[in-house]
Specification:
It is built from eleven helices and 14 strands. It is α/β, with parallel strands linked by helices. It has one domain: Alpha-Beta Barrel (TIM Barrel), CATH 3.20.20.70. The longest helix has 14 residues. The two termini are 32 Å apart.
């Protein structure tokens, strides 16, 4: 496949405002970022939202709608909304965006894990907001819950609203979860996998592990598309590995705050531009949003509820 899908994850729920002055927080900043990454060549923008004054990650449905409506007015990028929300968000809040907005795509975390950020708290010399350090510290004793029951319930809602799930795979056991849910009819083919690598509590970001994930998916799932995202300094190398193996790639400030060693990215669009330059050197071209819709079998912008 000569065309590949490039996704930009704009803000996430991992990094805090004190870690970078360029982390988008307000609806206006996120809207502008979605347009920028589209202009840089991304076909998909992955959306989390935050409390505008302090940057606390949340699942505010009004903010989701504001971003969705304004981005749709300005460009044709595919919006993939998180069902992860912030760490600790009640599970029932996390999936509401699927039924409220009926978007083309949402994430679906494929299993529970120890999602740890506490080890990065001392990298920040001075915090802007009082919530930031306790938010990171609490992850030493935190399990990110995605049970078989909640996955089933989420998928029922997601499919009922014509949404494509993007399965976030943090470790190889989650492929076993997906294979089980395929066998019992809970998941529909074709499947779109996102290998999320380098989170403490998940699979390390190495090329050997990417090969292992892909081989396991081929054996257990068979018919699928896949993309790769990797934390921090592993972002560009592992995304390049994905391209070489026939996959798609996700970059963005959710996954790494840097565009190169020691240089903060001023926008996720800088990272999109970098990985697309590498892709073109390999003879790979970025898919447009409409081409990505065809690759993934999405319903199109005319069928969303925003």
């Amino acid at each position: 496949m000569e065309k590949r899908i490039f996704t930009a994850a704009l803000t996430g729920a991992i990094h805090t405002p004190s870690m970078s002055p360029y982390l988008p927080v307000t609806p206006g900043q996120l809207i502008d970022e979605a347009v920028r990454v589209r202009e840089a060549g991304a076909a998909v923008a992955h959306i989390h939202v935050r409390e505008p004054q302090t940057g606390v990650p949340n699942a505010d449905q009004d903010i989701y709608r504001e971003i969705a409506e304004q981005v749709k007015k300005r460009c044709d990028v595919i919006l993939c909304f998180t069902t992860g929300g912030k760490l600790g968000e009640p599970v029932e809040n996390r999936v509401r965006v699927a039924s409220n907005l009926k978007p083309e795509m949402t994430s679906l975390n494929a299993g529970s894990l120890n999602f740890a950020l506490f080890h990065i708290k001392d990298q920040v010399k001075e915090y802007k907001f009082p919530w930031e350090k306790p938010y990171l510290e609490m992850t030493e004793d935190f399990i990110f819950p995605n049970t078989f029951k909640t996955m089933r319930q989420y998928l029922e809602i997601i499919y009922a609203n014509g949404v494509k799930p993007e399965f976030e795979v943090y470790d190889v056991g989650m492929l076993n979860n997906i294979a089980f849910l395929l066998r019992n009819g809970t998941i529909r083919k074709p499947v779109y996998l996102q290998f999320v690598m380098g989170i403490l509590g998940g699979i390390p970001a190495t090329f050997q592990n990417l090969i292992f994930l892909l081989d396991t998916a081929n054996r257990q799932i068979g018919d699928f598309q896949f993309s790769v995202c990797a934390a921090g300094r592993h972002q560009i190398p592992l995304c390049t590995g994905s391209l070489l193996m026939g996959g798609h790639a996700r970059v963005g400030l959710e996954d790494s705050l840097y565009v190169e060693k020691g240089v903060l990215a001023r926008s996720s669009a800088e990272q999109v531009g970098k990985i697309i330059r590498i892709a073109r050197e390999l003879g790979i071209q970025p898919a447009t949003p409409d081409e990505a819709r065809g690759i993934l079998g999405l319903k199109g912008l005319s069928e969303v509820n925003f």
